[in-house]
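Z., the sequence and structure:
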Amino acid sequence: MSPSELMPIGLFARRCGLTSSALRFYADSGLLPPAEVDPVSGYRFYGADQLARATALRRLREIAMPLAGVEAVLAAPAAEASRLVDAHVAKVVGDASAALRKATAVVSSLGGGPGLPIGALKGPVLADAVEQVLTATAHETRLPVLGGLRLEADPGSLTLTATDRYRLSTRTLVPGTPPGRAWAGTLSGDDLRAAASGIRRSALVRLEAAPHGVWFRTGGREDHYARLLSEEFPDHRQALASLGAVTGRATVSKEPFLRALEEQPGGRVTLRVADRAVHVRPAEGGHPGTALPATTTGTALLIHFDLTTLHPAVSTAIGPELMLDLRGADQAVTIRSADRGDLTTLAMPVRHSRPTTKRPRTG
C-alpha cells in the first residue's frame, strides 16, 4: 500500500469514531494493528480498507461486548457473527432484568413501610392499559420523559397517559379501591414493560406511591416497582383542551382497517374519508388501496399519516369498531372505541406536500 493511501492515526480515528488512544490499545491487543508503522518515528498509519473493521469494533464495544467476544465476531462468517451478537445482547438484557429485580428487593428492604395507597385494580385490566398506552412512548436521549407513562390518581379514577409528541394515548380506569387523595407522577416506561407480565398474572394489584416510585403490590406474588422520572411531562391537558372542533366523523371496523394499513407498501399512508367509506392508500400513489365501508359525517377529507404513528393507534384501540374524530388535514385525529371511550389516542398527520416539514406536536 503506497503512503498516499494511508491515513495517520488521528485522521483514521476521526473517520471511524475511535480515539487515538483506543486505536493504540486495539493495536496492542491484536484486534486492529496499523497497516504500517514508521520505523524511525513510530507513527502509526491505517488504510481505508480498515475502516469497516474499525467501525464494527467500535459498535461492538458500544454494546459492552468483551474483547474476546469482539474478536470472535470479527473473525466469524456473517451468520455466525449475527448469532454471537444476538447471544451477547440476550445476556445483557438478562443481566439487566436480574439487576432490576435485585434493585427492587433492595428498595423494598429500605422502604420502611407501606407507601401512599393510590388505588387497586384487577391485574389483567391494569396490564392491558399499561401496554396500550405505552405504545405512544418514544426513546429520545434528550427527552427521556417521552419514554415514561404519566399516572394521575383522583378519588374516582386512575388515568394513564403517554406521548411521543406526534401521538398521545390516554386511558382512564375506575379502581376497585379509590385513592385516599390525589396523586400524580411520571413512571419509567421500561420498568412498567418489565413489570407488565407479572401484573397481568395477579388477580388484584394495589398501587402504592413511594418517594421515588410506585409499588405494584400483587398479594402473594412478586411485587413490582417503577421509578419516577424527574423531568416535567408534556402539558397533555393543554394539548387536549386546545383541539379544534370536530368537523367530521367516521366509524369503521377495526380489523379490516388494520389489515389495510399493513398491506400498504410504503411508510406513509393516505386516508380519504368520503362517500360512506374510509379509503386507505399509499401516500405516494401507485397502488389502488382499499375502500372500507364506514359511517361518515361531514365533508370529504384527505389526510396523510406516517404508518408508525397510525398503525399503533389503531392496533391498540379497544373493541371491534373505531370512531375517528376529524378536524381537518393538518389537525390531530382522535381514535377511540365506538362503544367504549376509556382509551383515546390522538394521531398527528403529516403535511404530504412538504414531507420534510415538521409536524404539529400534541404537547
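The chain is about 35% helix and 30% strand. The first helix runs from residue 9 to 16.

Let me know what you think.
H.
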